[in-house]
Write a structure and sequence with these properties.
The structure is a single chain. By secondary structure, the protein is an alpha/beta fold. Helices cover 37% and strands 25% of the residues. It has a single domain (13-205), classed as Vaccinia Virus protein VP39 (Rossmann fold, 3-Layer(aba) Sandwich). The chain is built from 8 helices and 9 strands. Helix 4 links the parallel strand 2 and strand 3 (113-117). The radius of gyration is 17 Å and the shape is globular. Keywords: Cytoplasm, Methyltransferase, S-adenosyl-L-methionine, Transferase. InterPro entries: Efm4/METTL10, Methyltranfer_dom, SAM-dependent_MTases_sf. This is Protein-lysine N-methyltransferase MCOR_41214.
Amino acid sequence: MSGPGQRDFESSSLGTIEHWDSTYEKELEAFKDIGDVGEIWFGEDSQERILDWIEDNEEIKTDDSIIDLGCGNGMLLVELSQRGYSNLTGMDYSAGGIELAKSIAESNNVENIKYEVADLICDDANKKYTCLGHTYKVCVDKGTYDAISLMPSDEIPARQYYLQTLKRLMTDDSLFIITSCNWTQDQLVEFFGSDFQLHDKIKTPSFQFGGKTGNTVTSLIFKLKS
């Protein structure tokens, strides 16, 4: 099994901003033409499991601050707003993604989401971007760490920058929810384990192959180590 500094999958264009800028440009055109919000990363079922976990968790109040790290089309935040959550922030390094997210929120008459173009994996990201200069009760990552891990080059230092930025977004009672299809639970625990402890996990569909059981998607909740 790969360690925290190694990946056992190939790099991909999914790890480049050029891919996402192009994707969101097309999705924005489709949204304006036919109202299609674009792809829900990992599917609607995965998103619903995250939303339900947040809603069922008594630690999280409706006015607690929640940030979506790599929000893309922003549908997770729109759904949170429609469930009564009011202190919402979305960031993405693709300006096209943020433009799409703002358009979708406006079409749903959602006005309580703050959006910003920001880069999680640059040096001093917490000082360079307004939204990354605050702490949050809940930090959600639905595929962003996966995308960073797919970068064709420099993915290891990029993941370390991600970790550095994430730590500064959280306090002792914050919750970090991460969903991945590239990394197993053990690998995520190993990578984040230097600074975070596993707090909970969201049950996801499993499969059996060759006598072993696995999951196509892993959703975990971490807290900072005390």
